[in-house]
């Protein structure tokens, strides 16, 4: 039985260290964000109290309900980016912990100015955050989810699923963790850091796998023709 690929990573909260890592990156990198709702448990508890106890207008009630129901997948106005993970191979990643404005601004500026090729899986989610916070988009990128969807292209939805865990799980093992871990309070947890590092490394692996598949099938078609 094939052993899961083991991912190693380095992490930092330092903008200085992050800047050094960003300047040392190769021309091809795989990227991914982790995010969480930006509200504290105390804020959520207070809003719930107001909703339960106070006489509110319809608009006020709707506003509180939207805050209480927000998730990390919600509108970017409810969200804080907690990590950027960057894989430089199928086994090595950097995890930048974005717990201060300096490192967050550094990371976002890098993503929209670098000419290095960025590989993202399901970029529509991550790019929505990038555009919301910067008003810009990356310059040079590919989306492995879209490429995989084009290749599978099956009318049966279950045979055309392109989730990263579904495509790379057989090689990296079951690295998913509970959604309860994705909070601002747990952004330094080693489980989160390894999860983030694995997401980026698996994206790198998927990019290489798709390219190998395309090359092999093109060669086969050429020979058959």
Describe this structure in words.
- It is a single chain.
- Helix 1 runs parallel beside helix 4 (101-113), helix 2 runs antiparallel to helix 3 (58-68) and helix 7 (164-172) crosses helix 8.
- The chain has a six-stranded mixed sheet, with helices on both faces.
- The chain has helices spanning 15-23, 41-53, 58-68, 101-113, 123-134, 144-152, 164-172, 190-224; strands spanning 8-12, 28-37, 79-87, 92-97, 117-120, 141-143.
- The protein contains eight helices and six strands.
- It is globular, with a radius of gyration of 20 Å.
- By secondary structure, it is of the alpha/beta class.
What's the topology here?
Blueprint: E1 8-12, H1 15-23, E2 28-37, H2 41-53, H3 58-68, E3 79-87, E4 92-97, H4 101-113, E5 117-120, H5 123-134, E6 141-143, H6 144-152, H7 164-172, H8 190-224
Helix pairs in contact: 1-4, 2-3, 7-8
Salient structural properties:
globular, six-stranded mixed β-sheet, alpha/beta, 16% strand, 8 helices, 225 residues, single chain
Q: What is the strand tally? A: 6
Helix content: 40-55%
First-last Cα distance: 37 Å
Report the structural category: alpha/beta
Number of helices: 8
Task: Please outline the major beta sheet.
Answer: 6 strands, mixed
Assembly context of the chains: single chain
């Amino acid at each position: 039985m094939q052993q899961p690929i083991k991912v190693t990573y380095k992490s930092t909260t330092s903008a200085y260290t992050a800047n050094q890592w960003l300047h040392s990156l190769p021309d091809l990198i795989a990227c991914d964000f982790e995010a969480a709702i930006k509200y504290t448990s105390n804020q959520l508890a207070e809003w719930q109290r107001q909703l339960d106890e106070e006489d509110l207008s319809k608009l006020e009630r709707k506003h509180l309900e939207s805050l209480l129901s927000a998730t990390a997948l919600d509108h970017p106005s409810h969200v804080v980016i907690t990590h950027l993970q960057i894989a430089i191979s199928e086994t090595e990643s950097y995890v930048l912990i974005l717990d201060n404005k300096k490192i967050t601004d550094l990371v976002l500026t890098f993503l929209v100015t670098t000419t290095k090729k960025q590989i993202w899986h399901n970029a529509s989610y991550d790019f929505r955050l990038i555009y919301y916070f910067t008003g810009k988009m990356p310059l040079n990128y590919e989306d492995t989810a879209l490429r995989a969807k084009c290749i599978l292209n099956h009318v049966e939805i279950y045979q055309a699923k392109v989730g990263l865990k579904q495509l790379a799980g057989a090689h990296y093992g079951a690295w998913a963790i509970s959604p309860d871990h994705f909070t601002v309070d747990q952004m330094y947890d080693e489980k989160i850091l390894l999860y983030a590092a694995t997401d980026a490394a698996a994206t790198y692996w998927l990019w290489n796998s798709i390219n190998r598949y395309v090359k092999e099938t093109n060669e086969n078609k050429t020979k058959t023709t």
